[in-house]
Amino acid sequence: MSKSIFVPKVYNSVLDFIETEKAIKKIKDHFEKELSEALNLTRISAPLLLRAGQGINDDLNGVERMVSFDTLDISNSTIEIVQSLAKWKRVALSRYGFSVGEGIYTDMNAIRRDEELDNLHSIYVDQWDWEKVITKKQRNNRTLKNEVQKIYDSIKATEKFLNKLYPSLMPILPDQIYFITTQELENRYPELTPKQRENKIAKEVGAVFVMQIGGLLLSGEQHDGRSPDYDDWSLNGDILLWYPVLERAVEISSMGIRVDENALIKQLKLAQAEHRFVFDFHQAVLNRELPLTIGGGIGQSRLCMFLLKKAHIGEVQVSVWNDHIIEECKKGNIKLL
After folding, report:
1. What percent of the chain has pLDDT over 90?
2. Which residue, 130, 124, 128, is CA-closest to 83?
3. Active-site residue flag, 126
4. What is the mean pLDDT of the segment spanning 313-336?
5. What's the DSSP call for residue 150?
6. How far out from the chain centre does Cα 102 lie?
7. Is 112 a known active-site residue?
8. Is 260 a catalytic residue?
9. Which one from 107, 118, 153, 251 is the annotated catalytic residue?
10. What is the pLDDT of residue 1?
11. Of 34, 238, 315, 328, which one is the catalytic site residue?
12. Catalytic site residue 254?
């Protein structure tokens, strides 16, 4: 069931269809260059399909259904369409032999069949997924914040680049990104829901990295769900940007330092997901066969939508929408691709 979409009172896209398509290409090319240089990343090919039962495909919050099927030539095996590559990238870093300080990025395309459709959510997901090798000593907040700052600087550089090409697309991002934990947010705004807190802080500071997502807060509630077997819940977070077009915070990136064997054991127990211990990926983490890493995903369509000041993600990607969304977009002069 889709959510109600937000339609601005007066909306006209700054760029038409053709200029939008040209600008999307320019944004993606420029941001990829900025990101890869800032984080020392090499682009590699990424899968759309994975074998089931290895624990590599992510089940996100543990309730989302994967799209799966069988094939004629691969017997006794179910094939799954990717939901996220958080675990696959870590395995790839090991297989390809990357060293500390080196990393990879990919064009990740996924289908999330249980996504609730709105201005920001589509069943088709496209991200720059990235992963980088770190040392045990680097598993700390300083490392996390340093990488966040590099990503934010790459976003700002792309915003400035786009403004030179299209002067009507004025930059709105602040010079610095603000850091705050989910517990600090709850302490500051105890009367608000987690999403309301995100909107409140994002509107105040313009750009914020909300840290430590997945575990329980002092109130006994979660700020948000997070899979227990890729991010370390004490060393992760989301990059949120205040977006005046929709009058809300937009999550551009989810990222974090990945679990080591101790964090994996702790979090699988907390999530009551001990059955995952038998999977190949989880055994590799427990046996220290995979490198320690930091990584995340950066939404391609969301970044394009933000920088091009679009009201709906369907203005920068081609997907499938229900009749209600199509009709509301027509009424609001939102032209879907």
Report:
1. 80
2. 124
3. no
4. 94
5. H
6. 20
7. yes
8. no
9. 251
10. 46
11. 238
12. yes
257, with CB counted inside 10 A (0-12, 13-18, 19+), is buried
| Contact by Cβ (8 Å): 218, 186 | yes
* 36, 127, 138, 301: the active-site residue: 127
- Nearest 5 degrees, angle CA 59-CA 212-CA 137? 100
Residue 10 DSSP code: S
Catalytic residue among 234, 253, 254, 317: 254
Residue 97, exposed/middle/buried by CB under 10 A (0-12, 13-18, 19+)? exposed
Any domain includes 9: no
Concerning whether 75 is annotated as a catalytic residue, the answer is no
Q: Which residues of 283-314 are buried (b: 16+ CB within 10 A; e: fewer)?
A: ebbbeeebbbbbbbbbbbbbbbbbbbbbbbbb
Q: What gap in Å lies between CA 296 and CA 128, rounded to an integer?
A: 8
Domain carrying residue 78: 17-331
Q: By the 8 A CB rule, do 249 and 6 touch?
A: no
Beta bridge partners of 257: 294
Asked if residue 199 is part of any domain, the answer here is yes
Residue 59 pLDDT more than 90? no
Q: 69 pairs with which residues across the strands?
A: 79
**Residue 29 appears among annotated catalytic residues:** no
Q: How many domains does the chain have?
A: 1
Judge whether 7 lies within some domain: no
CB-based contact 231:267 (threshold 8 Å): no
**Per-residue pLDDT, 35:** 97
E strands within the chain?
A: 41-43, 49-51, 68-69, 79-81, 103-111, 124-133, 178-181, 207-211, 231-243, 248-258, 293-299
Q: Are the CB atoms for 87 and 55 separated by under 8 Å?
A: yes
Does residue 2 sit within a domain?
A: no
Q: What is the DSSP string of 183-203?
A: HHHHHH-TTS-HHHHHHHHHH
* Entry pTM: 0.92
Phi-psi region of 7 (alpha: psi -120 to 50; beta: other; left: phi over 0): beta
Better-scored residue on pLDDT, 168 or 71: 168
Out of 58, 126, 131, 198, pick the active-site residue: 58
Catalytic residue (one of 90, 112, 226, 258) = 112
Percent of residues, the chain, with pLDDT higher than 70: 96
